[in-house]
Design a protein that fits this description.
The protein is an alpha/beta fold. About 35% of the residues lie in helices and about 20% in strands.
Amino acid sequence: MCEQASKVFDNVFAATDDSRIFDTVQSGGFNAIMTREDHLSGTDRCYEAYFKCGVKADVVVNIQGDEPFVQPSQLITLRNLFDDPQTDIATLVKPFLPETPFEKIANPNSPKVVVDNMMNALYFSRSVIPYFRGIPQNEWASRHTFYKHIGLYAFRTHVLEAVTKLPQGQLEKAESLEQLRWLSAGFRIKTGLTDVETIGIDTVDDLAAAESFLKKNLI
């Protein structure tokens, strides 16, 4: 992950509260920062790391540890979303193909994003939104473009500081999706399209898929 990020960004730091990860990152020739153990979210940890690193930046990118296969092209897309001066926060989405089985779209471990005509996020959910009343579920993907959320975020620096001070809201608690806290507070989340399939590691099955991916791509 550090290697991929270093292809796009000049200053890359791995933030962790685990000395084993810290040592592994440094032994690979990358920067690591030890953070507190009591953070409730990766965003809070990201802000502490930014505060400690000594680098001044307009935008801070948070690549979460459960997205190890991030590609440079995705990071460039994420960075370019800040060409729009109204972007507070940026993230990525990948369209589900029309032939995608409904069961895959409906997987609650794969959050979905509803966007407006300018690709600003309107809502994130573990449920399938919108609901097509009176239409068989196996036809939904052919009638509407559903977007899978890719767990990469970038923040204007002052926005990153602000969101770490927000209290949890009911939407975030219901869905267990931190980004709903930011939307509820009025921050504008711009989404960028990617066609790169990533493997987020949230479950045991995800870990098995990631290990299989590594074996195939290292041979």
